[in-house]
Amino acid sequence: MGGTPKELRETHSLGPKTREWMVSSRQVPGFGATHTRIAGFSEARAGYEFVRFSPAFSVILITERGEGRALVDGAWQRFPAGYAYVTAPRALNAYHIAPGSRWRLHWVIYEESARLPTVEPGSKPRLIPVDGTGFRLAVEGLCDENAGKADPGVMKYWAALVDRMVWRILESEMEEPRLNQLWLAVREDVAGAWDLRRMARRVGM
After folding, report:
1. How far is CA 137 from the centre of its chain?
2. Neighbours of 1 (CB within 10 A)
3. What is the spatial distance between Cα 138 and Cα 144, in angstroms, rounded to a whole number?
4. Mean local confidence (pLDDT), 141-161
5. How far apart are CA 93 and CA 114, in angstroms?
6. Does residue 2 carry a pLDDT above 50?
7. Helices 152-172, 133-147: inter-axial angle, 10-degree rounding
8. Phi, psi of 189 (to 5 degrees)
9. What span, in angstroms and rounded, lies between the C-alpha atoms of 29 and 10?
């Protein structure tokens, strides 16, 4: 998986054919209560690349389909569907689209003041297995409302739901990680013969 990155420099590049849908704190009253700066989703294409050396915010990104690359422990790692890249304020993070891929991802950016669980300022970025369905639907619902009636009351509830889905993802890290990986494996092979013996072998018990 991955390899050693080349010399990095601060980069904020969408690429000429990438499309994005997003809402900011200026548009969503509810973002103030959760210290959210911006949320959205991207249909990334060639040229999509970000490198941040010491950002004053945290970012949580989740791949829906396609694949990216994320910098973890000094090396590029695969960032496929079913994974989240969790980055903290004041810490180097970097990610880009995988060569030849069409990458669809959902993301949210929080102010440093948000104090999210397991995301202490300066902590290293990481990739974690997740079920991102709830987060994806909440982000898309918020963006859809913003592009339509943009009812402040409705957007407040969507914003709260986005935040709750993020907390659920981060809180799952404090649970038994082997069980999280097991449920992801079961969901990918629902028709499989998942008896107790097989599940125990899967988690190394």
Report:
1. 13
2. 10
3. 10
4. 96
5. 18
6. no
7. 160
8. -140, 65
9. 31
Sign (positive/negative) of CA torsion 54, 60, 138, 136? positive
- Helix extents (H) in the chain: 31-34, 133-147, 152-172, 177-188, 196-202
Q: Which two tokens stand for residue 104?
A: 């669809």
DSSP string across 106-162: EEEEEEGGG--TT--TTPPPEEEE---HHHHHHHHHHHHHHHTT--HHHHHHHHHHH
Which residue bears the tokens 């297995």?
Answer: 129
Return the H-helix or E-strand segment holding 83: strand 83-87
Q: Which residue has the tokens 């990680």?
A: 177
Which residue reads 């008896």 in tokens?
Answer: 195
Sign of the CA dihedral with 156 first, then 24, 78, and 174 last: negative
Going by C-alpha positions, the residue among 93, 97, 103, 95 that lies closest to residue 63 is 103
pTM: 0.82
- Lowest average pLDDT, out of 40-49, 117-126, 145-154, 178-187, goes to 178-187
Number of H helices, E strands in the chain: 5, 11
| Contact between 42 and 18 (Cβ < 8 Å) | yes
pLDDT digits (tens, 9 = 90+) for 60-109: 999 999 999 999 999 999 999 999 999 999 999 999 999 999 999 999 99
Beta bridge partners of 126: 86
